[in-house]
Amino acid sequence: PAELSILNNCSPSQLEGLCSFLQLSTCPEPFLVRFCSWLLALSPDLSYTSAAILAEQLFLRRVVSLTQPPSRHLMAALTSFCSKYSHPFCRVLVAAVLQEHGEGAEQTKVMCELVEECLEPHSVQLVLSQILEVPLSGKLLPVLQAVLGRQEVLPPELLDLLVLTLCQQAPAFATSLDFAKLVTAVLTVYQSQVS
């Protein structure tokens, strides 16, 4: 709809107010899919700040509160939004999920799926750097595995940080099969760079 061009003309506070007025954080998921398809067609593209605000308003509460697998509508909306605005999405949503304490099994699965199927290479690197900023936990190991599964070329400093983190965390994960798989993946994918 032509009316959506207003999203490009709002200040951050106006956009937050508009999202609140439209109740986007609680709108039905089938509408969420349609809204995201409209966002993809928007021209010009949303600014980074606007995309970050929309990522927070549309998805943050939904993903953080997951206690069972996400609906196909929610995954479709996440996937379409990520396909165009993966960097602001990662800055907002991935950071929030990483800071959540507890098991977070469903959030971990969503992050793995997005890393494996949607994110652009620079966003995969962003996810990796975000993971390495927080204490490593069992719920993050599958996400790291998904990042390595992409076999992206990593900047030397990020690869060094990954190796250093794995070395430092090894005693805490001495009996973890997932950690062993992770170390094996690093040695396999980046064998020419790891001494």
Layout of secondary structure:
Elements: H1 12-22, H2 29-41, H3 48-64, H4 72-99, H5 105-117, H6 121-131, H7 141-149, H8 156-169, H9 177-189
Helix pairs in contact: 1-3, 2-4, 3-4, 4-5, 4-6, 5-7, 7-9
**Average pLDDT for all residues:** 89
Given as residue ranges, the uncertain stretches (5+ residues, pLDDT < 50) are: none
Number of strands: 0
Helical residue percent?
Answer: 55-70%
What is the terminal-to-terminal distance? 55 Å
How is this structure best described in words?
It is a single chain. The mean pLDDT is 89. By secondary structure, the protein is an all-alpha fold. It is elongated, with a radius of gyration of 18 Å. It has 9 helices and no strands. Helix 2 crosses helix 4 and helix 4 packs across helix 5 (105-117). It has 2 domains: 2-119, Serine Threonine Protein Phosphatase 5, Tetratricopeptide repeat (Alpha Horseshoe), CATH 1.25.40.480; 136-194, no CATH class.
